């Protein structure tokens, strides 16, 4: 065994005892990362220090509302996905407190197929099926587990998965775990998808997987176009509505309802960690498919059941979400205000069609925006650089909620405008 700065190498020989090849330690990449953890920046020392300052910032526990306190300082929050403000809703918190007082925070113990299923899980699943107007629904302990487990269970080596290039990472992981053939089509390009469908021959099934709302770009999947292709090519259509539930469609039912094509979407996937304000995930669809997932989705079978305290809080949140037309109206009012104000100030927002507001930048400029917003103006946004976005670009992801007020948005836009003006003059670079 040979020790190096990067790790260890093990020497292997053949059956005759002769020295063979050397195999490097899988930990090498970890050591290299610590030597240069922000190699994805343009390589400048100040960029790496800035990235570390931005991405290692510690958020306070109470970070769901428009305002939060960090080290005794009030901070305006625009980095949350708590679209309707339900994470801190008194009714949700009260129900969680009641259940925690009676049962604690960890019960029930066990996985859903063993000792973990309680009546409360089944009641929530019934509510979700009615919410999505499907025959059945299944609840997972996290949104990521719902996405990965569904694809891993449904698809196999003879099947072909067609997936949007910007689909969420959990869908891509699930696709790889399924062992199906994967075909990636250009983002929201139904023509490219059709070309791939025409060129791909298989004895197995064909499945198209998209996000209802794309989490970085903020745009919507062209579901009417995809449904038209579904009618002609006979594939199954799966929609991850993580960022659409509660926001789009009548009663917040999601993008298929927004477009009026809900009956032609085969499976509706979602998470509770956005508009619901809790944690967990679900899949809604035909009874036979949901039952199959209960016995075949590895992330359902081999994971502890969703805690009762979260299950009950989510059930209350779902009831509130369906009735939250006033909050949805306020969310969209704030969204229009923010996006129009940013465009008027000269910022590029891409093709967003949702409250997700990506302010686009070249290089690592968005990291500087985020750092200056937090340190100088007390505003928290969420920057993204490569590999979350294309090399040589970055963005500042801003999300208004139903709880923001017009003056909050004006303060954000004015602050970002001031930072950009100073950056253009070179007075704020470097900032570390």
TrEMBL record:
Its EC number is 2.3.1.47. This is 8-amino-7-oxononanoate synthase. Its cofactor is pyridoxal 5'-phosphate. InterPro entries: Aminotrans_II_pyridoxalP_BS, Aminotransferase_I/II_large, AON_synthase_class-II, PyrdxlP-dep_Trfase, PyrdxlP-dep_Trfase_major, PyrdxlP-dep_Trfase_small. Belongs to the class-II pyridoxal-phosphate-dependent aminotransferase family. One of its GO terms (molecular function) is pyridoxal phosphate binding. Residues 75-416 form the Aminotransferase class I/classII large domain. Keywords: Acyltransferase, Pyridoxal phosphate, Transferase. It holds the Pfam family Aminotran_1_2. It is an enzyme of class 2 (transferase). The keyword Repeat does not apply. The keyword DNA-binding does not apply.
